[in-house]
Structure formats: C-alpha cells, structure tokens
Design brief:
mainly alpha, Growth Hormone, Chain: A, 80% helix, 0% strand, MFS_Na/Anion_cotransporter, transmembrane helix, MFS_trans_sf, MFS_dom
Length: 406
C-alpha cells in the first residue's frame, strides 16, 4: 500500500475505534440517565437498580473470559464488527422490555457484546499502529467513552421527554449499524506493523497466567475500574438526590463530569510521548504520568460537601479526568509490554477484574443508600484507589520494558 494510503487507513482506523467506543458507552449509559423515568414507571428501588447494574457487570465479566480468545482467534475486523451488530440490536431491544426480567435479558446480551470493545480496540492499536502513533491512538480510544458520556446526558433526556424513553434506546442502537457499514468498508486495506506481522496466537493459558505482565494489568484494572463504574452508574442518582435535580436538569452537570474525563484520556495521549521526548525511559514516563493522575483524584470526597450540583460535578469530573489519564496509561502499558498476540486476552482478563470490582461497588452503593449510610464510602474508596494501583504496578514491574525488549 502507498505510504499516503497507509497513513490514511491508520487515521481512519483511529476514527472508527473512537466512534465505536463512544457508541459503546452511549448505549450503556442510557439506562442510568433514564433512571428517574424508569424508576417511576416500573417502581424500582435503589437496591433493584443496583442489581440491574450488577447483571450488566457480571455478564460482561463472564463474557470477557472468552472475549480475548475470540478477538485473538478471529481478528479485530470480524470480532469487532459482530460485537457492534449484536450490542446495537440488544440496545434497541430495551425498547420492547415490559418488565424487569425483560430488561435483564436485554442488558445481559448488551453486556456480553459490549465486552468485546476494549480488548478489540487495544488489539487493533497494538496490531496496526506503530509505537509512535499507538499512545495517541489509545488516548483517543480512551477519550471516546467520555465523548459518548458527554453527548448522552445532553441528548437523551430531551429525546426521552419529547418522544418517550423507548425512542432513546431505538435511536442509540440504530447508530451502531451505521458505524458497522463504515467499519466493513474502511478497514479492508489495513496491514499489521512491527512484531505484529509475525505474531501468531502466542502461548496458552498457563503461559498467560504465569506472566507478571498479565497480573500487572489485571490488578491495576481491578483497583481502578470500580471507580469508573461507580461514577457511570450512580453519578446521575447522586446529583438528583443530593441537589434535587429533575430529569431535565441533570444533563448539564453530568455532561461536565464526562467532559473533564475526556480531557484526562486525551491528555495522556500527549503527556506520555512528551515525557519520552524529554529523555525519560518507558518505565519512568509511564510511572510519572500515573503518579500525576493518582494525586489529582485525591480531592473527590469534597463532592459530598459541594455547595451546588455544578461544583460537585466539577470535583467528580476532575477525578474522572485523573481516572481516564491513569486508565489510558494502563492500556498503553498493556500494548507496549505484552506480546501483540496476547494483548486482547490480557485486556479481557483485566476487564473481568474491573467488572467484578465494579459489581462490588455498585452493590455496595445500593446497600449504603438503602441502609442510610449514604455515598461517602464509595468516594473514600475512589480517593485511594490510584495510589494503591500505582504501588501495585511498581511491585509487579519495577522496570517497565517494551515487549520487543524482552
């Protein structure tokens, strides 16, 4: 392929991964944003809403046990395309649900298909993007959930108020099929780069689970992903209950939270390469970047004492900025240090861990609210999670080295 055409194909790949990941989070966030409306229609309690969230997390966790193999075995193009088609159909199926059981079925299918997204995106970056573009590509991919999360609270409540809650699920699901047509046509000319050219399915489960690089990613995801799931699933409810917001009023502060999160993901795509250019090693650049983000999240408990919804959103948004910057570094750590043929499997295992701890914090929140404890335990967990994760990473990999360095 000519150089210019190859460069265009890679830019298109980044764009498609960005949009696909944004849609992934649009579809999963619709339920949380419509909680007040659905709660009134179906009579859900906080604990029942927590259980519905747990169904999603556990379904995704169990699916991720096979997702890594699925993506590594069949390749990014086919695996990701199938996943988007299935999760888009499942998202639209929510509109047909008439009771909690039917929501559970639709939510479970959505979770299984959406679990493919992150392993496939990281695998695509590791396979098709050179090291000089990979960090930027991963930064854009990790920015995408926040763009989806910014647009969703701005668009979904007005759409639901104008046309009913079912329209929200139908419209967001249909967008996935538009993306699928672009994916099929836009990725046909991509060619693997670097060591990925020679990579076959590398190793077995014994090798995967005996590698410290695998457990570094798994542990870091377990410690930090729970914070993301807590904010994604419960922040709307926190703002509504704490500040008395209506369904129509909650969109702007929710959008602010995820706008700041987008800055965090994008900033890592710029910060890490900048540190490398200053002469830092991969090890020092990754850990310095992670340390900066870990410190930024420490003030999140102040949201509990905020004087207004926008002030609370600003504090929570700063924490999500830190989360996304830290999370993008975890993605980069996996893409840089794990052999390309194992990347999707390692990210899938990390996703399992993150979904399980996400289930735990979602259930803990439901229990705390039901029993009058309030939101403070979850904010305290969030504040300390990232320094703990950084310490874990340093213990597991005192010196981070690129995969092709041994």
């Amino acid at each position: 392929m000519p150089v210019d055409a190859e460069a265009r194909a890679r830019r298109l790949l980044i764009a498609l991964l960005f949009v696909g990941t944004a849609l992934n989070y649009v579809d999963r966030q619709v339920l949380a944003l419509l909680k007040p409306t659905l709660e009134a229609e179906f009579g859900w309690s906080d604990q029942e809403f927590a259980h519905l969230g747990s169904v999603f997390q556990l379904s995704a966790a169990f699916a991720l046990l096979a997702v890594g193999w699925f993506v590594d075995r069949f390749g990014v193009r086919l695996a990701y395309g199938i996943a988007v088609a299935v999760w888009s159909a499942a998202g639209m199926a929510h509109a047909a649900a008439a009771n909690v059981s039917q929501f559970v079925v639709a939510r479970s299918v959505l979770a299984v298909a959406e679990s493919v997204n992150t392993p496939a995106a990281v695998k695509a970056a590791a396979t098709y993007l050179p090291l000089t573009q990979r960090s930027f590509g991963l930064g854009m991919v990790n920015t995408a959930p926040n763009i989806g999360a910014i647009l969703t609270p701005l668009l979904i409540p007005p759409l639901a108020l104008a046309f009913g809650w079912k329209a929200a699920f139908l419209v967001t699901g249909a967008l996935g099929f538009v993306w699928l047509a672009l994916w099929i046509g836009g990725t046909r000319r991509l060619a693997p780069v670097g060591v990925a050219k020679k990579a076959a399915l590398d190793g077995n489960w014994a090798q995967l689970l005996s590698d410290r690089r695998t457990w570094t990613v798994v542990g870091a995801k377990a410690l930090t992903d729970c914070v993301w799931w807590f904010v994604l699933f419960w922040s709307t409810d926190f703002l509504v209950k704490t500040f008395g917001l209506t369904q129509a009023e909650v969109g702007l502060p929710s959008a602010l939270i995820f706008a700041l999160a987008a800055v965090g993901a994008f900033s890592c795509g710029l910060l890490f390469p900048a540190l490398l250019k200053r002469g830092m090693s991969i090890n020092k650049a990754r850990k310095t970047s992670m340390a900066l983000y870990a410190v930024l999240i420490l003030p999140i408990p102040l949201a509990l004492q905020a004087p207004s919804a926008m002030a609370a959103a600003l504090i929570i948004g700063l924490a999500l900025l830190a989360h996304q910057g830290f999370s993008t570094n975890i993605f980069g750590l996996a893409a840089d240090t794990v052999p390309p043929a194992r990347v999707a499997s390692v990210m899938a295992l990390g996703g399992v861990a993150g979904n399980l701890t996400g289930t735990g914090i979602i259930e803990l929140t439901g229990w705390c609210l039901t029993n009058g404890v309030g939101y403070w335990p979850m904010f305290a967990i969030a504040a300390g999670a990232y320094l703990t994760a950084l310490a874990f990473i340093h213990v597991m990999q005192p010196v981070i080295r690129a995969a092709d360095e041994g």
